[in-house]
Specification:
about 350 residues; alpha+beta; Creatine Kinase, Chain A, domain 2; seven-stranded antiparallel β-sheet; two-stranded antiparallel ribbon; globular
Length: about 350
């Protein structure tokens, strides 16, 4: 069975709920208190682009229940270390307040800031990245091409950034709109094979529009660190089980890619489907990957589950996934929950404080 790993980016905030530039301090505490490095990847805290955020990752797991437990443990571990710096972690894909964020004191971060100006300045955003293991790059590219029409559905399920710089945006995932300003971000055309993928990467590097391969920000890409496909389209999820759901669906899609190939829509159509997913999340219509037409979000999510049903059943994940999908559709993704708190009278700081509680809930 394919292994899964999940990377999550979190905001670092004060106990009162304001973003706080303490990543360097948190990382110093982490190096002193966390377990010694092992040969197994994952389990550590890592720097991100801004001082107001931190990243954690799970070790690779095949069992979905074990992965969900690792996600919770990683959140608890990260929050414990953040407390040593007087901060907490919040699984919000964007801060609701007006924030002047700060890049890490890092040569590469400074180079990105200098080259990309306002695009880099605005990038206080937090995503959820799923890694699924592959045999080789040929298999990985086959999975990447199969994922193309389904990535927007994954984004819709994860939407968790309805506010930006002190305003309500009208989007479930405004993070994806901000993230989409990078020159490599978003949906891609089919690659066909590993040689085609490598040709695109080499072409992007030769343009000089990105500094290195680490700035290949496709919705899904071949990992440069591990033998995995890395699916990067999702917002960080408010609820830990929603992150595990992302992982289960990605593995199901990876297995489905080994069957009959799907028709490949044009990238322009995928961009429109991705925008729709960012705009309405699971509250309105989504573009069906099967027909290219709008349908209620619940019906499109059901199409995704049906598409990966055999793979989920073989992995023993089907019953859990069906329950969790029903939970998300009933309870709402992070964006819906944040808007619900607003309706109850919560201001920006209170939204963040409630998100902290939800982030580390057992």
């Amino acid at each position: 069975m394919r292994t899964l790993g999940v990377e999550e980016e979190f905001l670092l905030v004060t106990p009162e709920g304001r973003p706080e530039p303490v990543a360097a301090t948190v990382l110093r505490h982490a190096s002193a208190v966390l377990h010694p490095p092992t040969d197994e990847p994952g389990g550590d805290l890592e720097k991100e682009f801004k001082q107001e955020q931190i990243e954690t990752s799970t070790p690779p797991r095949t069992d979905l229940a074990e992965l969900a437990a690792e996600i919770r443990a990683g959140r608890a571990r990260t929050d414990t270390v953040a407390r040593k710096a007087g901060a907490r972690i919040a699984a919000l894909a964007a801060a609701p307040q007006v924030v002047e964020s700060t890049v890490l004191p890092d040569r590469r971060a400074y180079a990105i800031r200098a080259e990309f100006g306002a695009t880099a300045r605005d990038q206080l955003t937090c995503g959820c990245h799923v890694h699924v293991s592959i045999a080789d790059e040929e298999e990985g590219v086959r999975i990447l091409d199969h994922l193309r029409p389904w990535n927007a559905v994954l984004l819709a399920l994860s939407g968790n950034s309805p506010s930006w710089q002190g305003t309500s945006t009208g989007y479930a995932s405004y993070r994806s709109q901000v993230w989409g300003r990078w020159p490599t971000a978003g949906p891609t055309a089919p690659f066909g094979d590993a040689a085609g993928y490598r040709a695109v990467i080499d072409g992007l590097l030769s343009t000089g529009a990105i500094l290195d391969e680490g700035m290949v920000y496709f919705d899904a890409r071949l990992s440069s660190r591990y033998p995995t496909v890395e699916v990067r389209v999702a917002d960080v999820c408010l609820d830990p089980d929603d992150a595990a759901l992302q992982a289960a669906l990605v593995r199901g899609l990876a297995e489905a890619a080994m069957g009959e190939p799907m028709a490949q829509p044009r990238t322009e159509l995928l961009r429109a489907a991705t925008w729709r997913a960012a705009r309405s999340g699971i509250s309105g219509d989504l573009v069906s990957p099967l027909t290219g037409k709008p349908l209620p979000a619940a019906e499109v999510v059901a199409q995704l589950v049906d598409h990966v049903r055999p793979a989920l059943a073989e992995a023993g994940d089907l019953e859990w996934v069906e329950r969790q999908v029903a939970t998300v559709l009933r309870r709402g993704n992070g964006a819906i929950q944040q808007l619900g708190w607003r309706a109850e009278g919560a201001d920006d700081d209170e939204v963040v404080r409630r998100a902290v509680d939800r982030t580390v809930a057992p």
